[in-house]
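2 proteins. here.
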Amino acid sequence: MQTTSSSNEVLVPSQRTFQNLKRGLLAWAAVLCLCCPGFGAHQTFVKTFPLSSGGSFQLENINGSVRVEGWERNEVEVRAVKSSVNDPRDLERVKIEVCSQPGQVAVHTRYPQGQGVEVAVEYVVHVPSRVLLGDVQTVNGSVIVRGVEGGGELRSVNGNVEVLDSSGRFNAKTTNGDLHLELRQLVDGGPMNIETVNGSVVLGLPSNARANLKILSMNGDFSSELPVTSTAGTPSSRAFRARLGSGGGQISVRTVNGGIRLVMERSGV
């Protein structure tokens, strides 16, 4: 009887410990759910499409950031992650459509009309390093371009726009966000427009860059690491024109609430 009683005494604490551990795990899971409101269902989209060097690429998004990176392949890899905060069925309601034609690839993110679908789509896209980014845009999120030789139109509304370790001429625009462009080479061409409303602008150019500058900073300072020659107004004024080097294609830089800096391009930044 003593052996049986001793056995029972050992088992009871073990069962209680197991129950307490189970309760603790359930409580910890509840805390995680409360602390991580972004936790929900996910769905991954990965497809590859042919695109020759020098072709055109476009992408249209609404909720989520877009990252475009150049590589040494004649193809486009589109990788997207759809995330739903509430209803996992919303993932199927948001469609990713790709139109692939010779010399052009266009990606569109389609949301259902008239329905409150809380889905974010985050893109990471690889394109040929020599490419024209015809129109890469999102509404809520950043647009980041790295390792591209060409140019294009980059737009956001609530997010930053960045061009790093690239060459060419790019137009960049956002409303609530910063703009940061680092160009290894500034090629001749049409006007460049770099514009934000609530944010700062950093434009990195090589030491041999040539351009005509049009600067407007309503509520912010202007500074330049590159030698500029004022042609109308002074760098201390809100709006002025200047020449970089011997002059060239126009670069218009504008912000309402934020500063503007011209810096020496630093490869790999």
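next one coming up
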Amino acid sequence: MPDRLRHLASWETFLAALTLAVILYAVLAVPNFATRFNLSQAAAGVSEKALIVLPMVLLIIAREIDLSVASILALSSVILGVLVQAGMPMAAAIPLVLLAGAALGGFNGVLVVRFGLPSLVVTLGTMAMFRGIGYIILGSASVNTFPDSFTDFGIESVLGTPIPWTIVPFLVLAPIFAVVLQRTPAGRRIYVLGGNPATALYSGIRVARLRLGLFVLSGLVSSLAGIVFTARLANARANNAVGFELDIITVALLGGVSVFGGRGKLTGVLWALVLIAVIRNALGLSRIGGDAQGTIIGLLLIGALLLSNASKHIFERLRPRSI
């Protein structure tokens, strides 16, 4: 019984129950929510955020953050559009875009690791800079012509199922990230780094290389999200994915990842991802616009932080104390 109580008295369990309750409400009260088409569209619409939240979780656990992820997505989309417009085959353009994303993430990492600048300030600056470069390259124009095989990936589903192809990269990467974070020495190093950076340094962990690698990974996955986003909308432009940072950080923190580092699991983050996707989809079907949705998501983030802080004390009281 104590073990079962310890398992149930967790933020992940509460979040799972909340998510299932919201889904049940949406199925019963929101018209057209449970249709095959809507569920497929909802899954497709969260594809890019789902991808980016994976490295974001690792960064926050390591006491870092990357506010430039949506701008890297947009700039990657612009680079892909320009390369395709110039006649480059997709097979060559996609690796170059991924390499560019890794380089942008590495740029963030170098500023943080080598120059000792706070990641919050660095990525706040590069958030504007990377999107500005996108405007310099493409201006206010857009690229809308891509190979049919690429756009088919953005709109079709897997073998006639409601699962869109755009969510498949996330479904492939999520288990890998979960295993690496929670079952490997690399994951333990990330937790140690976030829990106590001084301990991580004196225990022999290559702190600088680890932090730099996390930023490179963030840029790489953000560029992959940019490719998926471009395929889904068949559109490359500099203002793609504006405001995605709010949802991504909300998902990570709502999922139980500590803003102070050293704590969090991807299981809770996955529940939070579904919860945010369902709320946005239900609000959209109820004809509540994007600005109002953003307000609600922002309030949800603040409420989650307050509730998470309170729940720690509640869950600790529920857990049996050793004598």
